[in-house]
UniProtKB/TrEMBL annotation:
Coiled coil: none
GO cellular component, one term: mitochondrial membrane
Protein name per Swiss-Prot or TrEMBL: Caspase recruitment domain-containing protein 19
Subunit organization: Associates with BCL10 by CARD-CARD interaction.
Gene3D superfamilies linked to this entry: Death Domain, Fas
Main location group: endoplasmic reticulum
Keywords, in A-Z order: Disulfide bond, Endoplasmic reticulum, Membrane, Mitochondrion, Transmembrane, Transmembrane helix
Annotated transmembrane regions: 120-138
Encoding gene (name): Card19
Gene Ontology biological-process entries: regulation of apoptotic process
Cellular localization per UniProt: Endoplasmic reticulum membrane; Mitochondrion membrane
Species assigned in the record: Promerops cafer
CARD domain span: 38-96
Highest taxon, organism lineage: Eukaryota
Alphabetical list of Pfam families matching this protein: CARD (PF00619)
Amino acid sequence: QSYCHRLQHDMYFLTSTSRLNEQVVDKIVLQLNRVYPQILTNEEAEKFRNPKASLHTRLSDLLKHLQKKGDRHCQEFYRALQINAEQLFNDLPSRKILKTTDPTEIDTDKEQYMLNDRGPVFFLACFSVAAGLALFWYCCNSETQVIGRARRILGFSPIIIGRHVRNICMLYLEDMSRN
């Protein structure tokens, strides 16, 4: 989101009563006048610091003026606001939106839910299928002669593998040993 759009979004918040006092607005205008590159000319700075106009009018005119000038000018306004009124800068509506929708930040609660939405039973089922397929592939490989060892392992595994599955595997191993 560009700084001009952010400033447009924050304009009502900034111009509402008692958000910014006259001294802070003067400091921001002076900083925009003195910073390199110069954002406000001397004439513009005097116009926005004119005590005869109301603070609301001066601030509204300043924000509209900066929006017309472009994104760099709006960015410098936000920098000046951060330096001179940090608490107000942190409370800006656009800052709150940026804090909640930062694409580089990982929402740990959401990430934890996304990783654990299937639960431990799903993990154990997938792991069992993968281990079974690996054992099946290892036993069926014609280059390896491990049927005797596999039979011993499967014989001691009624706790790990269900009895029906163990019986099927034992029948398959016996059939393989006959061939």
